[in-house]
Amino acid sequence: MITVKNVTKKFIKTNKKKERQEFTAVDNLSFDVKEGEILGILGPNGAGKTTLLRMIAGIMTPNTGNITIDDLTYEKNETDIKKMIAYLSGNTKIYGTISPYELLKMCAEIYDVPTHEIDKRIKEISKILNMDAFLYNRIEKLSTGQTQRVNIARCMVHNPKYYILDEATSGLDIITSQIILNFIKSEKEKGKTILYSTHYMEEAENICDMIIMVNKGKIITTGTPEQIKKETKTTNLRDAFFALVGDEHE
After folding, report:
1. Residue 49, SS3?
2. Which residues contact 29 (CB under 8 A, 6 or more apart)?
3. What integer pLDDT is reported at residue 70 of this predicted model?
4. Which ranges of 85-132 would DSSP assign to H, the alpha helix?
5. Which residue among 29, 109, 147, 249 has its CA within the 20 to 30 Å range from the CA of 213?
6. pTM for the full model?
7. E-strand stretches of the chain
């Protein structure tokens, strides 16, 4: 289980007058992610979703609060945690001059996947994400959707327990988006736990067990999609969000 308790993250930014100001990106958030569920973290751009996921993935450190993964902390168990998780950001860059196969083999070796299992694992992932047609092409020659599938494959290669996916389908065509959503559903069926950040409300409503809506760094509601729609007397999560924030939305 992932536990986020009273987590706050602040940054210093410079305004138009070139004055330095403190900015709170994540404001005292607390929640649990249960094993085997898909938790959607929803909100507009600038809501704090990416900062939150980067802290859960151990890339950033909270100013205050604690994050534990299976009762382990990054301060004491960083290597053990990193072996359990896979993190995908919306702007992940990968080597363009090598093939997806070469990238996956390199990642497998980094994560100590047994040598005799690497090729089998890559073939399984390639089939799941429909990558066979471009598995040996140079990454720099791939389309945006193909490259994103390679990024997802990179996350899968060490068979993680937890997926942390930030805007995994942003800017993709409908076919590639569906491939990725099907992958997320299939990983859940295997008992994996997935944190899924998106601003596509309809997408989250389709795949998520639980939803956390955030705005301006704060949680504005938590529940199943049905619970949130009932709470706000709406028929979809997009309308539910606007019902909750009123005129405060950006």
Report:
1. helix
2. 4, 6, 7, 8, 52, 65, 214, 217, 218, 219
3. 94
4. 100-110, 115-128
5. 147
6. 0.86
7. 2-14, 20-33, 38-42, 64-69, 85-88, 162-166, 193-198, 210-215, 218-223
